[in-house]
């Protein structure tokens, strides 16, 4: 089976990280692949190291005629069974031919960008419901979850992040964007005077978040970590993973925390609410409710037995549903079924 990927993603982000995990895993499962990606030397090197022929293109706006001209030629030369688009800008450039066309969606995007894709793959059932409600034929809407890699051994040394061993550590991971609601995490921190917040991410809201931390008087208890690739070691060293997002279609960080055995406290946005069984494998609180977020964190911090129960239940969910083995098997089975259309 031959699959060509079109990826027009940003330099960092959850979908981009999953793309970098999925393609090598598909290769190990016997899928022959090639990719055209938005210019990103590190991502290209990563894919090539796993034997995936990779071409970097601009994937710019409407005036980027070179990408629009190059993509069909690359696809025809590879002769795929299936072409999979990642991100709407890639879907806009989906070439037509004897191959099956599909797109993977991790959010609630306008389907006008996906008119050239016969099949749409949502990574949650809620996204699939949205796709059907927007008029895409139900028999061509599919659900495939993400997976998280096992965190491996070891953890970040707290001393390296100016954090004492005794302090409860709240960890936030993600792009510094209003959707992620890290401002709510800072407000919750103000109600948890003993805690330290590790904020790992980059994005347009950094200046505003730093100003808010100063205004709330919590700046001395915030560690600004920038974008990190060592999420497993960070999670192992943290007390609680916070996911306060106002808008979160899935929540890869929840899966990563489960894999690391770290208790999760999340706002009940679409993704976390569909994943987490409240008070069983995580804690859910109302969106934009800093007081409730702080209260849930305090309950986990002050009750080690309850925290351990959450950790064990999260590990069990990860092991049963969200390992690479389980998810890649679903991808391969769907690709085989879709490719059968060619005959």
Distance between the termini: 13 Å
Percent strand equals: 15-25%
**Discrete helix count:** 13
Q: Pick out the low-confidence regions.
A: none
Largest sheet: 7 strands, parallel
Can you give the helix content as a percent range?
40-55%
Strand runs, count: 13
If strands are numbered along the chain, what order do they take across the biggest sheet?
A: 3-2-1-4-5-6-7
Number of domains: 2
CATH fold call of the largest domain:
Rossmann fold
Global outline: elongated
- C-alpha-based Rg, rounded: 21 Å
- Element order: H for helix, E for strand: EHEHEHEHEEHEEHEHEHEHEHEHHH
Classification by helices and strands = alpha/beta
**Architecture (CATH level 2) name of the largest domain:** 3-Layer(aba) Sandwich
CATH H-level superfamily title of the largest domain: Glycogen Phosphorylase B
- The average pLDDT value, as a whole number, equals 95
Which CATH class of the largest domain?
A: Alpha Beta
Keywords summarizing the entry:
41% helix, alpha/beta, 2 domains, Rossmann fold, 17% strand, six-stranded parallel sheet, seven-stranded parallel sheet, 343 residues
Brief description of this entry?
By secondary structure, the chain is of the alpha/beta class.
What can you tell me about this protein's structure?
The chain is α/β, with parallel strands linked by helices. It has two domains: 2-147 and 323-342, Glycogen Phosphorylase B (Rossmann fold); 158-321, 3-Layer(aba) Sandwich (Rossmann fold). The chain contains 13 helices and 13 strands. The chain has helices at 14-28, 41-49, 65-78, 88-92, 125-133, 182-190, 206-216, 231-237, 252-260, 270-275, 290-302, 304-321, 324-339; strands spanning 2-7, 32-38, 53-57, 82-86, 100-105, 119-122, 141-143, 169-173, 196-200, 222-224, 240-243, 264-267, 283-285. The protein has a seven-stranded parallel sheet, with helices on both faces. Strands 10-9-8-11-12-13 form a six-stranded parallel sheet, with helices on both faces. Helix 10 (270-275) links the parallel strand 12 and strand 13. The longest helix is centred in the C-terminal third of the chain and has 18 residues, at 304-321. The radius of gyration is 21 Å and the shape is elongated. The two termini are 13 Å apart.
């Amino acid at each position: 089976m031959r699959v060509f990927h079109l990826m027009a993603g940003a330099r960092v982000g959850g979908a981009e990280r999953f793309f970098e995990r999925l393609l090598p895993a598909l290769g190990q499962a016997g899928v022959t692949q090639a990719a055209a990606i938005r210019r990103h030397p590190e991502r290209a090197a990563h894919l090539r190291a796993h034997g995936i022929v990779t071409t970097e293109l601009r994937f710019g706006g409407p005036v980027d005629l070179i990408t629009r001209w190059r993509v069909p030629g690359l696809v025809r030369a590879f002769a795929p069974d299936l072409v999979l688009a990642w991100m709407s800008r890639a879907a806009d450039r989906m070439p037509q031919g004897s191959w099956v066309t599909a797109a993977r969606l991790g959010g609630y995007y306008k389907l006008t960008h996906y008119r050239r894709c016969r099949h749409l793959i949502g990574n949650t059932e809620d996204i699939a419901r949205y796709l059907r409600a927007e008029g895409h034929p139900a028999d061509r809407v599919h659900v495939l979850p993400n997976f998280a890699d096992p965190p491996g051994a070891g953890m970040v040394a707290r001393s390296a992040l100016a954090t004492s061993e005794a302090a409860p550590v709240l960890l936030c991971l993600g792009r510094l964007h209003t959707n992620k609601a890290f401002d709510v995490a800072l407000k919750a921190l103000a109600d948890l005077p003993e805690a330290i917040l590790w904020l790992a991410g980059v994005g347009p809201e950094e200046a505003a978040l730093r100003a808010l931390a100063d205004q709330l008087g919590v700046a001395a208890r915030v560690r600004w970590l920038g974008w990190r690739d060592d999420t497993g070691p960070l999670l192992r060293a943290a007390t609680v993973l916070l996911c306060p997002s106002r808008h979160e279609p899935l929540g890869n960080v929840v899966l990563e925390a489960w894999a690391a055995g770290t208790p999760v406290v999340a706002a009940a946005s679409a993704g976390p609410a569909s994943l987490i069984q409240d008070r069983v494998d995580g804690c859910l609180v109302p969106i934009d409710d800093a007081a409730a977020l702080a209260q849930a964190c305090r309950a986990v911090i002050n009750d080690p037995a309850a925290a351990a129960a959450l950790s064990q239940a999260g590990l069990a969910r990860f092991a049963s549903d969200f390992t690479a083995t389980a998810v890649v098997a679903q991808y391969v089975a769907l690709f085989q079924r879709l490719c059968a259309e060619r005959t």
